[in-house]
Amino acid sequence: MYISEAQCVCCGACVLICPRRAIALRAGKAVLDRSRCIECGICIPKCYARAIRSGSEKIVVSHDRYVILNSAKERRGDVQ
Q: What kind of fold does domain 2-76 have according to CATH?
């Protein structure tokens, strides 16, 4: 995931929707904490400025909390 500083309008929608609190507003722009981001993609459709892009083909379409949690566990190696 990455956030385009040039496109970000600092509306804060991504900050509010992120289940991992991986996005913060700093100096008038959204900043992504990659160590917290699980690339669930929930923030992408919420960004009307289209500033958020996926760097991965794997995007969770369902906003089911179990899917998101399993994605995080999978990244850590807890899910086989």
A: Alpha-Beta Plaits (3.30.70)
Count Cβ atoms within 10 A of the Cβ of residue 58 and give its class: 0-12 exposed, 13-18 middle, 19 or more buried: exposed
Q: Give 24-39 pLDDT, tens digit per residue.
A: 999 999 999 999 999 8
pLDDT tens track for 38-63: 988 999 999 999 999 987 655 555 45
CA distances to 21, 36, 77 from 26, in Å: 14, 16, 32
Core vs surface per residue 19-40: b (16+ CB within 10 A) or e: eeebbeeeeebbebeeeebbbb
